[in-house]
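Hi support team,

I've been running sequence recovery on a batch of backbones for a student project. Most finish fine, but this one hangs at about 90% for roughly twenty minutes before it completes. I'm not sure whether the input is malformed or the queue is just slow. I've pasted the structure tokens below so you can try to reproduce it. Let me know if you need the job ID as well.

Thanks,
M.K.
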């Protein structure tokens, strides 16, 4: 049995646009994208950051020489580095002067003995000389001890001052280096951030360039889709399929059957005899 199909087709120009879009889509998507042109990149370390890193490595244990030197200023012999040869000269000159004054004192005892009518070298004079010499020796020893103690204190004070300075330097060096490292790191970070921004801008520009054909084709496709869905149909297509071989055979049989029925005789015989005489 024959059937009739009715379709509402878009306008011809819309159909042409659809075919053109399909052709472009197939051609564009058949070409692989070079994603390496817009792959993410990381900015390299800035030279200032590298310098900060090197300073950081060099700063490890940078205080140790100062601590070691400070240790040399401590202990029972630390003061010796701060004794001066001039101190010994002063000490010697002071004692020489004292001895000279002591000798004058002994001479005075002799003069007093002579004035008093005593003979030189007498017993009383000898006792006075002995007492004077003993007292002078004690005074000399006391003065020498005081001078040496004073000089030792000065040297010890110098050692303590040097010790404190070395310890302060040992603490200050890492702090100063830390400030330099921080400053260099911050400046290098600014430069690295700028470089990263430039890499990002280049990456985005490359991505936009690579994706521009796809974006453009996508807008094209949206327009075609909008026309197909919103533009009214322009004509109707009527189609009737041709009969199949089976349908043709069945139709031919029906025709022959009708013809056969029409040529039967009234008596039940066949009219083929009239058509085909013996």
């Amino acid at each position: 049995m024959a059937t009739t199909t009715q379709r509402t087709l878009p306008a011809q120009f819309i159909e042409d646009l659809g075919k053109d879009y399909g052709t472009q889509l197939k051609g564009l998507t058949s070409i692989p994208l070079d994603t390496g042109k817009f792959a993410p990149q990381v900015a390299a370390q800035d030279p200032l950051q590298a310098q900060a890193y090197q300073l950081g490595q060099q700063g490890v244990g940078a205080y140790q020489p100062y601590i070691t030197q400070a240790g040399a200023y401590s202990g029972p012999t630390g003061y010796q580095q701060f004794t001066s040869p001039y101190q010994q000269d002063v000490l010697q000159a002071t004692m020489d002067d004292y001895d000279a004054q002591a000798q004058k004192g002994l001479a005075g005892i002799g003069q007093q003995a002579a004035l008093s009518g005593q003979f030189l070298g007498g017993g009383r004079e000898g006792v006075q000389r002995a007492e004077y010499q003993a007292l002078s020796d004690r005074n000399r020893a006391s003065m020498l001890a005081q001078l040496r103690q004073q000089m030792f204190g000065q040297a010890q004070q110098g050692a303590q001052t040097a010790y404190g300075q070395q310890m302060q330097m040992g603490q200050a060096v890492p702090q100063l280096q830390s400030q330099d490292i921080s400053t260099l790191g911050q400046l290098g970070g600014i430069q690295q951030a700028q470089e990263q921004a430039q890499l990002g801008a280049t990456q985005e520009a490359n991505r936009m360039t690579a994706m521009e054909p796809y974006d453009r084709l996508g807008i094209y496709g949206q327009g075609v889709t909008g026309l197909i869905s919103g533009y009214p149909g322009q004509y109707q297509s009527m189609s009737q399929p041709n009969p199949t071989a089976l349908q043709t055979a069945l139709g031919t049989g029906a025709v022959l059957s009708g013809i056969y029925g029409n040529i039967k005789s009234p008596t039940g015989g066949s009219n083929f005899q009239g058509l085909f005489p013996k």
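--
Follow-up from support: It reproduced on our side and the slowdown came from queue contention, not your input. Helices lie at 12-29, 47-59, 64-72, 85-115, 123-230, 245-262, 272-275. No action needed from you.
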